[in-house]
Amino acid sequence: MERFTTAGYRNLPPDELWRRFKAGDERALGELARKHYPGLYNYGLRLTTDSELVWDTIQDLFLDLWDHRETVGNAVFVKTYLLKALRYKLLKCRSQHAPIHLDDSEENATEQTLSIEDQIIDQEIHTEQEQLLRRLMAGLSKRQQEVLYLRFYQNLDNSEIAQIMGMERQSVANLLHRTFKELRSHWSPDLLLSLLLLYFSKS
Amino acid sequence: MKYKLYNAEDFLFDESFRQWVNGTSPQATAFWEQWLQENPDRADVVRQAKELAHTLENYYQDNATEARIDSELQRLMHQAAERRDETAEIPVIPLPAFSRWRWAIAASVLVILGLGIGLFIYSSDQIQEKSYAHLTQTAGDSLQEKINTSDQAMTVLLCDGSLVKLQPNSRLSYPKRFSATSRTVYLDGEGFFDVTKNPARPFLIYANQTVTKVLGTSFLVRAFEKEESVMVIVQTGRVSVYKQQDYERSTKNKGQQVQGIILTPNQQMTYNLADRQLMKALVEKPRAIAPDNVNREQFFEDTPVTKIFSQISKTYGIKIIFDEENLSACLVNLTFSNESMHEQLDVICQTIGATYEILDGQVVIHSKGCQ
Could you report the per-residue pLDDT of A72-87, keeping only the tens digit for each? Predict the structure, then answer.
């Protein structure tokens, strides 16, 4: 199989890349996709635990975009468009096939590379915090979890989140506000406690 | 500073703060370490936010590897290429009888990248054999053809990644796969070429008695039947233009110096089919090749005109010839905003009582000097 290289495409200005994509240059598509792949895959995992389904759905997504390349509008909105389309496709799959759940546990989260900071922090406290977060997340509604995720991990603003989830912007703002109120009421005291513990254990 | 009033979750959603937490940006790291030193009272809040951000990042972590993403991208590009080729197949439309066509030539080349280019003009007595129809019919490769019958430019992608902006009433034939030694296409009409760089496989455009050879650059070729001259326009870079008989003589007798002209930015060459003369001139409206220098106000205070001339020369890539010694005493106060090159030269010359003319694609300043 011939290998495509997009090496020369990494430094193309966005509008040039977009122009090439529109003209039917598959390497431009590859380069566009490269930027969005990690974020899309990660988002997909919030919506289903079937990782292979997520990979396949993302392929479909970009091939759809490819088939409509001559009519799709502006590159600026591609990220929002892709996230929204992925959500739609995965949720459609979920309603067709049986149980796919929003994952509220990360049991099979793979080993993480520890930063020096992590290593300094007492391992026990670290896992306690993760456990705490997991408990807190489990207490949130699926919408709250998703809003929090899109705001924090995907770094989207409220109106983009509203578009993706099909909500009013104000509802997103309210939901986010409520989510944080809940999180903070549980998080802060415990966190302070663990920080104090950290101090004591160090001294 | 806004960060002083931030609480933990405000920090959490701050892009630069998260870059610091992730360790993805050295600038962010430097900034936040500095900021923490200056704001020790916020250390607790920052620490909380950092912890929370860390924990969230871990919580959201996935198992995607670079290798997996790369193989997904390969799969995607293959499928995309297949789908495109399935839909892009255009039947070759029979062309009208070419013997009655009067082919006149006009080719202009706009070179955008600074690469050497040879443009060879083949004027043949056997015009028929050089026609688009004949060439595309006798070309060994099976060709695809794009015809732009719309009233808008059409973008055509070639398999080497080169792009052609095909103007209305123009047509382009090209093989689905280029040969190993060259990339040959056939044009009737006008097209703007953006050719990917590949010195091992020169890009050849057959456009009605002319062959334009490039190694990788952007340029415009015009070859409509109404025009009876070849025109080559260079925006940036260099182009060599040869008369066909000169070029062919030199390829036969290897080592013999070939007589031609070299065009630099904003120069144009006209080749008149009737008198077979290569004429060099400046384009009517020179364009800046260093765009940074235009659309910006420029102030000159007690500045030697020689300095301004060399700046204009650099901006437009056009040689300006003047007597250095003669003009060194000429100091001017000027402001340029968006004047054209000719307007700028007019202003300077009026100020110092000089004149200028365009000779052989260059600007020549005539002055008696300043006291």
Answer: 776 667 888 899 999 9
Question: Which positions 201-260 of B are in contact with A (Cβ < 8 Å)?
Answer: none
- Residue A19 CA: distances (Å) to CA of A7, A73, B180, B203: 17, 11, 27, 21
Residue B345 and residue B261 share a domain = no
Beta-carbon separation of A187 and B58 below 8 A = no
Q: How far is CA A142 from the centre of its chain?
A: 14
Class in CATH terms, A7-96: mainly alpha
More confident residue, B90 or A46: A46
| Eight-state DSSP code of residue A100 | -
List the structure tokens of B57. Answer: 């990042």
> Can you read off the two tokens belonging to residue B122?
């083949």
As for how many domains chain B has, the answer is: 3
> With the C-alpha atoms ordered A92, A94, A95, A97, is the resulting torsion angle positive or negative?
positive
Res A171: pLDDT: 92
Nearest-by-Cβ selection for B161 from A25, A115, A184: A25
CATH class of A116-202: mainly alpha
Q: Are B267 and B283 in contact (CB under 8 A)?
A: yes
- A38/B73 CB distance under 8 A: no
In a domain, B109, yes or no: no
